[in-house]
Amino acid sequence: MGMYERPFPWLSKPAAARSAIELIVESAAQAGASVAYLDYAGSEARGGEPFWLPPGSRAVWQRIETRLAEVVAYDAPEDGVDRGLDFLPRFRAELSSGTFAFVVSDFLGVVPEDAAWLTAGARRWEIVPVVIQDAVWEQSFPLVGPIVLPLADPCDGKVVELHLSRRGARARRESNVRRRDRLLARFVELGLDPVLVDTSDDAEVERRFLDWAERRRDLRNRR
User: Fold this and answer.
1) Which of 9, 15, 60, 223 is 20 to 30 A off residue 201, Cα-Cα?
2) How far apart are the C-alpha atoms of 211 and 217, rounded to whole Å?
């Protein structure tokens, strides 16, 4: 990604995540609800422990904003979401029944087993997966080819050339679409209503959450 200057020709996931988190915090503040925050970036240096702001922290958005600015290396473990769902029950008293838990991730790594989501739901928490994926490169793929794509290893920066045929591009598109559809369908089967975010534009991110809120109201009205 260092090959390009801003604006990037793909989704800026840090910007999209920041927009979603800020909206969640602001909405909680308007509702008079306390906010907690958890992430696993840099957890290896902390002996595997996450960065954690418990509910009721003062100036919570300022502290979260500072944290997001500090994270320059996205080195959270592949099973970070799983670890997070396992960590939160330590705070059963603070995270009472009715707590909303927004899980912000691209879900391209290790996705927790069904049991982890169901266990969280059994505590009467409302789990909301916020899926941040690029609409072109991760939910789909451009129908290009034959073409040579330079790809850089995110760990060491080494660049390799990928020879991609049009057939290969089509197969990649079909694979990415299936992966996205399976992920969203799995959440629905578990009784979760995910929010799909493919933009970092604040107004568009807000619209995704407004659509989610409307679906949630309609569902509750039908019960």
Assistant:
1) 60
2) 10
Residue closest to 187 by CA, chosen among 84, 133, 109, 111:
111
* Angle at which helices 60-70 and 13-30 cross, to 10°: 170
Span 61-101, pLDDT tens digits: 999 999 998 887 778 888 999 999 999 988 888 888 889 99
Q: Which of 104, 100, 103 is nearest to 124 (CA)?
A: 100
Q: Which domains does the chain have, with CATH numbers?
A: 13-141+173-222 (3.40.50)
- pLDDT tens-digit series, residues 126-168: 999 999 999 999 999 988 888 888 877 766 778 888 888 999 9
User: Which of 102, 54, 60 is CA-nearest to residue 81?
Assistant: 102
Range list of H helices, the chain = 13-30, 60-70, 80-87, 114-122, 166-189, 202-222
Q: Distance between CA 170 and CA 168 in Å, rounded?
A: 5
Compute how many other C-beta atoms are within 10 angstroms of the C-beta atom of residue 43: 17
